[in-house]
Amino acid sequence: MSETVSGVVKTERRLNGQALLITIDRPERRNAFDGATARALEAAIDEYEADDELRVAVLTGAGPTFSAGQDLKAAAVGDMGASERRGGFGVMAVPPEKPLIAAVEGDALAGGLELCLACDLVVATDATRMGIPEAARALVAMGGGLFRLPKRIPYNIAMELALTGKSLPAEEFHRMGFVNRVVPAGQAVEAALELAADIVKSGPLAVSASKAIVRRSYEWTDEEAWAKQMEFARPAIESDDTQEGIRAFIEKREPQWKGR
């Protein structure tokens, strides 16, 4: 396991160097985001994207809180938690092309929930509450919560959360399909890494293609999807890995992926 520290964001390689654990490391500010934290997370996401050995990333927060969202003290002096290229919190506008798993300890409210919405999979604890409380404070959730949440949970529930500002326990979000796993407090990272290990077993090109197609599926009609999916699927299905997967199945052994 190797570790690097970049100010307020820490990265560690796990699963034999195939997974990147990214930790927001501002527990004294409940892992809230100012500009420096957003830029540090963007740099960590860029590191993840650029390294072919890294297949999946897990995003978590140091201490008992996942993230409190925007650092309001920083915002009061004009220091917003955004980076130039990836946008809010250094990930919201341009998430990575490879899978990103949120490992949520404590609550995920406001920007904390919107950070989860920038991830592909979510692991939370039985003590976690989630919501977008901005309207109750005369604010508007502008980190993707108002247009991403209705795509991940039923419309009327998303609308209730948006208009009332109330939160729900992670178990409810699990029942609605937004949270993949609910685990006891203190076990979110471990459970997220177990989920990451399952992803690592799959072909890397197929994983990237599958994520790309699923993410864009909301934008396509069925008629469009038949043709447009091939832009992402073709490089995977024409790869050496596809032939290796077929051989491994026939030979009843574990495949050896090369990512090409």
TrEMBL record:
Xref: Pfam families: ECH_1 (PF00378)
GO molecular function: catalytic activity
CDD domains named among the record's database cross-references: crotonase-like (cd06558)
Entry's family note: Belongs to the enoyl-CoA hydratase/isomerase family.
NCBIfam families linked to this entry: PRK08252.1
Name of the protein described by the UniProt record: Crotonase/enoyl-CoA hydratase family protein
